[in-house]
Amino acid sequence: MHEAEQYLRDPQKPSSLYIRYLGKRRRIFINSQGQIGIIKPGKRTHGTQFTDWDHIEKIYLPVPKASPEELDRRLVLKYQREAAKATFSSPFIRHILAADPLKSLYENHITTGNSIDGEIISLKAVRKWCGEYYYRQFVEAVRTRTAFHSGIFDFQGYDGSLWVEPYEAGETYKLPGEINAGFSKEYRNCGNGYYYLLINENNFIGNDVD
User: What backbone phi and psi angles, to 5 degrees, belong to 38?
Assistant: First the structure.
C-alpha cells in the first residue's frame, strides 16, 4: 500500500492530504465509503476517483500545530528580532530585549495581549497614506529625537496619525536620548482603534487595542 493511501486509511489521521502529482500540488481524500479521490484542478470539493499512486512525486504531511506556549515564545522572539534592528533606544525596545521568551507578551508587559500582537505595519506602507510631508517630518523627528505629532490622515478607511515623543527630564522610566514613537489607526471620529509602536527604523508593531 502506498504511504499516502496508508495515511488516508488511518482513522486517527485527517481525511485529506496534499500531494505533488504530475508536477502540481493536489489534494486527495477518503470518503465515508472508504473510496479515495482527488480534487479536480480549480475546484474545492469536487473530485474524481484516484488510483495512480505510482505517479505521486511528493507527500505534504501536515505540520503539527504548535502549543500555545510555543506560539507565545515565537511572538516574543519576533519582537526581539525586530527590536534588535533598531539604531535608537526606547523604553519599549529595552523592555523587549530584556523579555523572557518563556512568558507571553502580556506576561512580559510588552503588549496588552490583543488581536494585533505580532502584527507589523511598515513605515513604507504608512508613507503611501500619510504623504511625503508627514513622512519626512516623522523620519527627521526620530533621527533628531525631537517631538512630532502629525495631523490626521486617511489610512485604509481609518484615521491615521504618527507621533514621536522624546525624553524629558524627570521621566525616570526613560533614559536621556530615548524616544517613544508610534502609529495609530482609529475608527473615524471615534478615538478608539489600534496602536503600534516603532520597533525599528522601518517597522511599527502591534501594542494595544482600545
Answer: -130, 135
Q: How many CB atoms lie within 10 A of CB 5?
A: 17
Tell me how far apart the alpha carbons of residues 45 and 120 are, in angstroms, rounded to a whole number.
34
Q: Which residue has the cell 489534494?
A: 27
Q: Say which range, 40-54, 62-76, 88-102, 129-143, has the weakest mean pLDDT.
A: 40-54
Largest CA distance in the chain: 75
Q: How far is CA 125 from CA 78, 89, 121, 149, 187, in A?
A: 20, 23, 7, 18, 18
The kind and range of the H/E element at 80 are helix 68-83
pTM: 0.75
Amino acid identity, residue 88?
F
Quote the CA–CA distance of 33 and 178 in Å, as a whole number: 66
- Provide the sign of the torsion angle of the four alpha carbons 165, 168, 171, 174, taken in this order: positive
